[in-house]
Known about the structure:
The structure holds two protein chains of two kinds.
Chain A: H1 5-34, H2 51-57, H3 62-95, H4 100-112, H5 115-128, H6 135-159, H7 164-171, H8 176-204, H9 208-214, H10 221-231, H11 234-264
Helix pairs in contact in A: 1-11, 3-6, 3-8, 3-10, 4-6, 5-9, 6-8, 6-9, 7-8, 8-11, 10-11
Chain B: H1 7-40, H2 55-62, H3 64-99, H4 104-109, H5 117-128, H6 133-140, H7 160-195, H8 200-229, H9 232-237, H10 245-254, H11 261-293
Helix pairs in contact in B: 1-11, 3-7, 3-8, 5-7, 7-8, 8-11, 10-11
Amino acid sequence: MRRNGNKSRKGYVIMLALFILFIFLPFLLLPVWSFTEHWRFPNVLPIPSLRTWNYVFSAHSQVKDAVLNSLGLALATGLLSQVAAYPAARALGLYVKRWNKTIRFVLIAPLLIPGISIAIGVHVLFLHFGLSDRWLGVLLSHLIPAIPYSIYLLYAFYAGYDIGYEKQVRLLGASRQQTFRLVELPLLRSVLSLSFLFSFLISWSQYLFTVFIGGGNLITLPMLLFSTLTSGDYSLIGALCTVFVLPALVIVIFTSIEVKRDFYKGKEANNPNV
Amino acid sequence: MFYSKSKSIRLLISAGMLFPALFIVGGSFIAGLIICGIQSLDYFPLIGKRTLSLHVYIGIFQSAVFYRSLIFSLGISLVATVLAALIAVILALWLRKYVSQGGWLHFLLQFNLPIPHVVGAIAILILFGQSGLISRLAYWAGIIQQPSQFPIWVTDQFGIGIVLEYVWKEVPFIAVSVLSILKSWTVPYEKQLQLLGANRWQRWRFATFPFMLPALLSSSIIVFAYTFGSFEVPYILGSVSMPTLPILAYQAYLNPDLSYRPEAMAINTIITIISMILIILYIKWGGGYAAKRQ
Lengths: 274, 294
């Protein structure tokens, strides 16, 4: 590398440019589309306009309702998923020895089984219990893929967690609340927030479960996106996609900050034995 | 959080901690799968069918449409996985040299991981469609005169658009997992080999490749399983006349004629069984890798 530093530098820049083009070009076009009046075939440059954004923010548009529905569902899913996953992950990581692998497999399986087979089965099940076509049913169905993800992340944390710290603090006279607040929570915080963000994102981008369980009564952002797709209004599609991608960007930025923090902790972070 | 000496109390508390997650996930998921399985055996009281029979499966295994879509689904997944794995390995090997120069490249690589597949599919539509950006550039370059002369890359018979989306989305995923191994595990071994006089090819053959193989394999199986069962991408980018297996199940399930229900359930069961086989492969090959890392 040193020998021909100049040459590899040039290669680096070219590769970086190609790489950025490969990763970003596809979805950078979407916000561009959203600011066009229309963009007919031979034109390489579009006619700019705020038409779609005016529509998105106007009082009569469905977009606002869809965003609010999606947001409410995703927030509830994110929170409830942590409430269910946190005790389960802790129990699996620290206390449960027998059947551990089997229980973990059952809890993580919905991540690996295709959404369509789960959605159809769960729809029939929820029809039996009168949960379909209702907000609660949709929320429960979103939890089915969200909880496994949270357990996957939190279990990895507890598998490497040293319960000795907690015992130490308890020995020194701390109460349960104090132990949780002063020992467990600070260590858990970054994993827990990551797990919240991912559950949020799973619910936010969920289409199949919402369509089947919601029966078309509950309009969320992905539902609107799919129905707009058939209309062929690419300016509106671009705007919806832009709104749709925003939470994902928050997650990327958050994880990169967390990774950096790990990086500065010192050499131990890179130790392969950890 | 509990240090009770009584075994039964400990058991009870553990069960209590596991219950909410198991009830919501395990309960609904397993019940759903069982319902699917039973209805696929033609048990459907709503339209007066109360006897179990295998004739839906026999019908499916004799229909050409089913085999066509099964092979199509498997083919798309295989091509997408192999292409993504190849590109990801090359990318990871190239990137590892520069990763030490700052987290910037790594940051970029992670950028499209959480982007929803739906958005990726729409992006591919806008780029590679017959009136997409590349088609326009071809027009200005004088290669084509009108959109219909541009080759059909999306909603095509061969699933080119679907494969493009999967490759675009999964290359960073595989690259990230391979890169994490290359960064931390292999370097000391490569240095050792170099000291002992091994050349480039030998270092690759004896250190780099064996070390990254488990990560590559397990992430590739995940990609294969995901792309095989994915619904949204073929729904947007696939051709109507060439459905993948999940699309076939979706169409049969939403058919207003209820007699198609058992067929939907049977296709669903088949998808689930194939995914289960993939998961077992993953546990066999990828599970050991995960255990080694801990």
